[in-house]
């Protein structure tokens, strides 16, 4: 809300609303949090908030370490927490995006770091380092090694199993799952795609729309239900410019499909 408070509703089976343990809430409920909230993002069953001081807090499922928290296991359930708990060893966070079971943070220095599942390389770690990252247990890592050119990032977004970034030069970088052409290229590792002057992006489960500084819109990825708006239901591996006069409508979430 404009006053910095947070409200949640819907499914809460693993505490993803941050209001304690209840199965669901059919009307908005204020989330208890002592500070002012600047950013919020939600994955499949986890949620992350960034406060006004740049600290990150998570609630819900931590099954793939997407919260970066040490959570005691219970034999009857997956790991989870039911109230927002601070993500350790992380500060000066500007923005956050959540996938199905991964979380990407944008830091004040223009780098990104990630937590959670890397099954599809969605946190930017190549095959040789996957197990090491998976065992970090609450230690977010800047991904500078093989993708050290990912710096000066200004925007982050996530699909279910993929991640997208815009850098200061208005270039788009993508990595993660390639099953439905949702990266705009065929390699799961971070690569720059053929879009210049990117300004804004919205991401669904496996498709993406990018608005550029000249107000054009380009789309790529999964298109089984025509979600790209390109006049067919074929997936688009490379970005396709939309032929529409309604470009201003892109400034909204792409939703699931």
UniProtKB/TrEMBL annotation:
Record keywords: Repeat
PROSITE patterns: RCC1_2, RCC1_3
One Pfam match: RCC1
InterPro entries xref list: RCC1/BLIP-II, Reg_chr_condens, Ub_ligase/GEF_domain
RCC repeats: 4-53, 54-109, 110-169, 170-214
Keyword Oxidoreductase found: no
Gene3D superfamilies: Regulator of chromosome condensation 1/beta-lactamase-inhibitor protein II
Name of this protein: Uncharacterized protein
Natural source organism: Vannella robusta
């Amino acid at each position: 809300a404009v006053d910095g408070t947070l409200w949640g509703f819907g499914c809460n089976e693993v505490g993803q609303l941050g209001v304690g343990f209840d199965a669901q809430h059919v009307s908005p409920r204020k989330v208890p949090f002592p500070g002012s909230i600047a950013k919020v993002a939600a994955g499949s069953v986890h949620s992350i908030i960034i406060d006004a001081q740049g600290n990150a807090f998570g609630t819900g499922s931590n099954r793939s370490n997407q919260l970066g928290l040490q959570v005691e296991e219970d034999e009857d359930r997956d790991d989870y927490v039911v109230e927002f708990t601070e993500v350790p060893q992380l500060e000066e966070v500007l923005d956050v995006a959540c996938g199905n079971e991964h979380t990407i943070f944008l830091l004040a220095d223009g780098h990104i770091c990630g937590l959670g599942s890397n099954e599809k390389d969605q946190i930017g770690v190549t095959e040789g380092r996957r197990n090491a990252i998976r065992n970090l247990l609450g230690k977010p890592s800047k991904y500078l090694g093989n993708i050290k050119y990912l710096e000066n990032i200004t925007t982050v977004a996530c699909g279910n199993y993929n991640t997208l970034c815009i850098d200061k030069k208005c270039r788009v970088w993508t990595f993660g799952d390639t099953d439905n052409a949702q990266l705009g290229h065929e390699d799961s590792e971070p690569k720059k795609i053929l879009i210049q002057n990117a300004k804004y992006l919205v991401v669904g489960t496996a498709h993406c729309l990018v608005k550029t500084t000249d107000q054009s819109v380009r789309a790529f990825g999964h298109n089984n239900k025509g979600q790209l708006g390109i006049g067919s239901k074929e997936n688009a591996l490379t970005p396709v410019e939309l032929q529409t006069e309604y470009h201003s409508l892109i400034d909204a979430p792409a939703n699931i499909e």
